[in-house]
Specification:
Low-confidence stretches: none
Strand order of the largest sheet: 9-10-8-7-6-5-4-1-13
Helix content: 25-40%
Radius of gyration: 22 Å
Oligomer: single chain
Number of strands: 19
Distance between the termini: 19 Å
Number of domains: 3
């Protein structure tokens, strides 16, 4: 089902809202949930014997991209990562002691920052330290984020040899003027060369990230970037909307604010992006993601089995996610946990022999029910009432009487179709799935102030 672009409806419904990489969102996390709760939940998780997903945060970058909203540490001075890696190994030791040794890792991801900030030998040792503590399934999805500007042939060879099978490259925009404005200069020829080398090395999936809404971007200029990306033929594409938050990220004050595209121009860019990638044969998965029809994300969505976690869309529903490193978030069956964000606090906790958790959340029964509904809307483009009723022993129409009443306006606007036993997202509603999901968000009802990005 291709998305349809309706500018008037997008303007009507555009408001701040969660991205639902979890439900409840991280805004609900509390410091009352700490490492003691985490240990208890880790031990309980052994009874379920669920497979594991591991996320490792490598926060270092050689230079700052002015659009960046991530938690990163800028340093040209190599060596700063050495004590950090040692503490991540210690954190793995602290966590793994509570887990049954026969639970396989089916998904593993290195994010950043810039994971290829690490030298080839460091990559090898890091991976060895993981394998010492966690058994990796032979069919595991093992992915890494890469900055093409600093990616060497030796690094490519090493990440393939240790076991990575998926890579993601940050492109953002190929226009030289935009690149200069955001302090990320990487010519198209360089990107093309790196992707060809990665493909030649035999990676199963090559993904790229783009950002729209950056200084000096226009529909016409970004169309050239999109066309070049289509030529590069990646397996997946993420196209993120730039969030200009200079009060939160002071380095964004260095961007030429007057050169940011208007809201109207951003809509024109978004419409072009969706049209171009769909016309090129990519499936619009949702929000900012596109994938080839045979990609496992597209296949899972067709089967109604897609899910979301803190890395975005995933095919690994039911897998329990453990986060390692500063700022990382874990997602167990019934709880979420986040590590300290600053290196100082993270280091202090690990040095004291403590798991470095600083906040978290434990789900209620109502959270479980609403999470399933919201994730089905976000991922699988609809809700089957019987499925929810069977899972939770409720009457869907009684439980969500208020929500079904509120959805009638969206149905009248053609975003959704409410049938006798299901809700279906229609083509016009594809771009507004966050808004549909928000109707079922009980925590959002209590919020006076919304501290989220806009839904479009």
């Amino acid at each position: 089902m291709k998305a349809e672009f309706n500018k008037e409806l997008i303007k009507k419904y555009d408001r701040p809202g969660p991205r639902y990489t979890s439900y409840p969102p991280a805004t609900e996390f509390t410091q009352e949930v700490n490492s003691k709760h985490y240990i208890k939940k880790l031990i309980e998780s052994n009874q379920r014997k669920t497979p594991l997903s591991l996320y490792f945060h490598i926060p270092f970058c050689e230079q700052r991209c002015l659009y960046c909203g991530c938690n990163v540490i800028i340093s040209h001075r190599k060596g700063i990562e050495v004590p950090y890696l040692e503490r991540v190994y210690r954190e793995m030791e602290l966590v793994s002691q509570y887990l049954d040794k026969d639970r396989k890792v089916v998904q593993l991801h290195w994010g950043g920052g810039t994971p290829n900030y690490l030298e080839p030998e460091q990559i090898k040792v890091f991976f060895e330290e993981i394998v010492k503590r966690f058994p990796i399934d032979e069919n595991a999805e093992i992915s890494i984020e890469l900055d093409p500007r600093y990616l060497t042939d030796e690094q490519i060879k090493t990440i393939k040899e240790v076991g990575f099978n998926r890579v993601s490259l940050g492109i953002q925009d190929l226009n030289p003027k935009v690149q200069r404005a955001v302090n990320r200069i990487q010519p198209y020829e360089l990107i093309k060369e790196k992707i060809e080398k990665l493909r030649e090395t035999g990676f199963e999936s090559i993904n790229v990230d783009l950002i729209y809404g950056l200084p000096y971007q226009t529909k016409e200029s970004f169309e050239e970037t999109v066309e070049k990306v289509i030529e590069l033929n990646p397996d997946r594409i993420a196209t993120y909307s730039f969030a200009y938050i200079p009060d939160v990220k002071p380095h964004q004050q260095l961007l030429p604010k007057e050169s940011l595209p208007s809201a109207e121009e951003k809509l024109r860019i978004l419409e072009m992006i969706i049209d171009k990638f769909q016309s090129a044969g990519y499936v619009y998965i949702g929000m900012d993601h596109f994938a080839k029809p045979h990609d496992e994300l597209a296949v899972a969505q067709r089967k109604g089995e897609l899910w979301r976690n803190f890395q975005g869309y995933t095919t690994k529903k039911g897998v329990e996610l453990l986060g390692f490193g500063a700022t990382s978030i874990g997602m167990l069956y019934d709880s979420y946990f986040q590590n300290f964000k600053t290196l100082r606090e993270y280091n202090n906790a690990v040095d004291k022999g403590e798991i470095p958790i600083f906040r978290g959340y434990i789900l209620s029964e109502d959270d479980f029910i609403r999470r399933e509904v919201i994730m089905d809307i976000m991922c699988n483009l609809g809700v089957d009432f019987k499925k929810i009723e069977n899972m939770f022993e409720i009457d869907f129409k009684d439980y969500f009487e208020r929500e079904l009443e509120e959805l009638k306006e969206m149905e009248e606007d053609g975003l959704i179709k409410i049938e006798e036993d299901k809700i279906r997202i229609l083509p016009v509603g594809r771009l507004l799935i966050r808004n549909v999901a928000m109707v079922f968000d009980a925590h959002l009802r209590k919020k006076r102030e919304l501290k989220f990005s806009r839904t479009i």
